[in-house]
Amino acid sequence: xxxxxxARALLGHLLNVSYPYNYSNPKFELICDxxxxxxxxxDADTEDVQYICETTKTTNVKGYTVGFDxxxxxxxxxxxxxxxxxxxxxQPTGAKASGxxxxxxxxxxxFGTNNQFxxxxxxxxxxxxxxxxxxxxxxxxxxxxxxxxxxxxxYVTLTKDQNNNPVFSWTPATTETPIITAxxxxxxxxxxxxxxRGTGIVGATxxxxxxxxxxxxxxxxxxxxxxxxVSEALTAGTNYxxxxxxxxxxxxxxxxxxxxx
Length: 261
Fold this sequence. Notes:
By secondary structure, the protein is mainly beta. 7% of the residues lie in helices and 49% in strands. A hairpin with a 5-residue loop joins strand 8 and strand 9 (166-172).
């Protein structure tokens, strides 16, 4: 599995440092230089319910407060440091404290790619907390980043600019659909069952339908593949046309291309 540091490095956070702030045309920077610790915390808002006829309580989760603090040790020229400096100068209030960030996992590659990673994006409130430090320590700036919307599931794409610097872009998951790879169009199936295979987003739940009836559900594995066997829902001598959709988080894809067999 590697060292603990190697495992920690699989988790990445990107901060939108666009100025003026722009959600639709972001400029993402990896939170890295100068930051030695980042822990995204999930504070659940719970409610205990116990009816008079019950002997135990039931705990319901109504929502989450999600966020993290980062302390940035001074790194000259760092984009995150410049962002923190601007926040400290402006001390934003209201809409000026708007921002967003992405959390992604480098070990969750999109099927068939080597530079696209599954992640979530949240709009956030960003504000400065402190600047300074002791005389014998590094100059340190501190920011608080608090998510204030439901997460948007999607993909981070990593490319390089002309100077070989990393460039990160974001694509919402709604643009992706699963693919049915078997059976193929027009195939004749013999026997009492049919194996249906395909590709999709790692971790997604795929539903295969014949018209309005769901005949199979499967989970996309770590290689981006899914498979299942159907027998009871099919009748010998009948032509079928199937499609597939997938769900990742709260995002439901569009229907795949249909396959008839």
